[in-house]
Fold this sequence. Notes:
- The structure holds two protein chains of two kinds.
- Chain A is mainly alpha-helical.
- Chain A contains twelve helices and four strands, in the order ααααβββααααβαααα.
- In chain A, the strands form two sheets. Chain A has a two-stranded antiparallel sheet with strand order 1-4. A two-stranded antiparallel ribbon of chain A has the order 2-3.
- In chain A, α2 (36-54) runs antiparallel to α3, α2 crosses α9 and α9 (218-232) packs across α10.
- In chain A, 50% of the residues are buried.
- Chain B has 14 helices and four strands.
- The relative contact order of chain B is 0.18.
- The mean pLDDT of chain B is 85.
- At the A-B interface, α3, α4, α9 and α11 of A face α5, α11 and α13 of B.
Amino acid sequence: MINSLVQAILLGGYYALVACGLAFMFQVMRIINLAHGSLAILSAYLVWEITDAFALSPFISVLMILPIMAVVGLLLQRVILERATKGGELLPVLTTFGLAIVIDNLLFQQFGANTRSLAPYLGDLSWDSYEIFGLWIGKLPVIVLLTAIVVIGGLDLVLRFTPLGRQIRATAFDPETAGLVGIDARKIAGISAAIAMMTVAISGTALGLRGTFDAYAGGPQLLFAFEATIIGGAGSLWGVFMGGIILAIAQSVGALIHPQGFLLGGHLIFLIFLFARVSLNSDAFSFKHWLVKRRHKGDTL
Amino acid sequence: MKIKRSNAYSKAIIFILVVLFIALFIMPMLASNNVMERLTVLFIYIIMAAMWNTLAGFGGLISIGQQLFFGLGAYATIRITNLGISPFSALLISACLVGLLSWPISTFMLKLKAGEFAIGMWVLASIGHLLVNLDPLIQGETGISLIALNQFDIEIRRTLIYLSALLGMSGLLLGLFFILRSRAGIAMQAIRDNEEAADSIGVDAEKVKRWFFIFAAFGTALAGALWLAQASSFQPKAYFSVQWTAYMIFMVLVGGLGRFEGAILGALLFFAVETWFADTGVWYLVGLGAVAMLCSLFLPKGIWGAIESRLGISLIPVGYQVAGLVIDTKSKNT
């Protein structure tokens, strides 16, 4: 029981990692990027290719693809999202869905139906574990969880304390007023998309290290990321982190109850949180609310 | 200045449609088996496109989870025929049941906004898939055949499925046409054009959207049930696949989002593309995704929207048209 709880928290670290990019883009640009999962899978393949071609450690390959994915994010914003957001709230949904289909099928065309994993390139690390109080805890899931904490903590610190973070928050809060005080909303959106895609690159690598992936694995990753975001409430990035862990715990409980209950458990906890949010009908979970609250806190200090 | 609900084109088109319907109705006596089977598929595509267009085009509700209703329609048909009811009655009963089920779903889902609604529906579809898998009758992903159809001779069966699809499509399109021209339909089109403005003149957006949601669920379920009848076997994975929604999105985006004629045109185009290019496998899907993406970026009202705004043609007018209006700019101050 305690063992499955610990494993669930470690899995939650992965969900938090894949969700934070989705939540970040949603908060800053008000876009739910339906190609999010597919881009994570694309990153996993890129890391796999580089690792395989140059016989590198995946931990070094991921550093190499960070700038690539940042450029992908910038292009995504400039070429697609910027145009789509002008057409209202619905066009980004349709456009990114189309993009997801294109990416998934191109990956299938290139890499075929076989599943791949980055684990073979890790040597002993892929099965090494720590023994703590009689529990065996895999080193790799711990690394992924720590990475999630570092990435989310880093993003949170950037948002809080840097000039760039202030500009991003201002743009998220009210793009027009931010424009009036000289913030280039277009630049901020581009940078935000680039940052989000770097987290996507890390999450794709984490997926590849922890298990296997194939060309059509993007859809499920998108659903997990979305569920973690909604459970966490998108109120803050730490909320998303908690959302990931709650999602993973619900899935583990579901799996204990019924052999096919893993996904169902996650979906049900998602529905419960969604229902709570809809019926409370409060603004408590919105990023805006969080910003206002933080500003008030700042005033009193 | 005159306000009309029809025009010369639309009067001609009504005549053509009636002739076309009669021709299609007597088709089973003339056409080959292959033609009938392909036409059945086409009718189902038209239903799917028209239903997705009902939601997205007229209500601004982009659902990535319409496969939920498609799959449930097929599943309910299996369950109902298992009770000993004739498969052709089961088609209609299952669509009605799914329509009923969509009512509680709508109260819940319609509170979500744009992207949240889209993915929320996808999650629901995934839940539907998992729950259907748990049913011992379905035997998990192995699925089951619609054995009850075997009581009909193969020729009669093909004709009955063809006629069911034809009648289902005609009925749904006719229903949609009258709904769109009713008060609720006008309200819906007002919501499509500007939800806030519609709200300010007293349109109850929530109620209207709910009826459209239920109507689309009913129609999509019927499409799923018809697909089951013509494919005759049910595998949860195949019916609850997001692919179906991808097809619907392609048809509607290319044909014309929010245009009655657009969904039909889109379905015809998709049917043609599928007939010619489905052999290319993955590239075909890449092409579909790319075209859908490009259409949403550069041609948001689709091919029919472009034709309509260039030439001012409306074949199946669901709104009001103002004829003979001359804007007199010179006499503004007099």
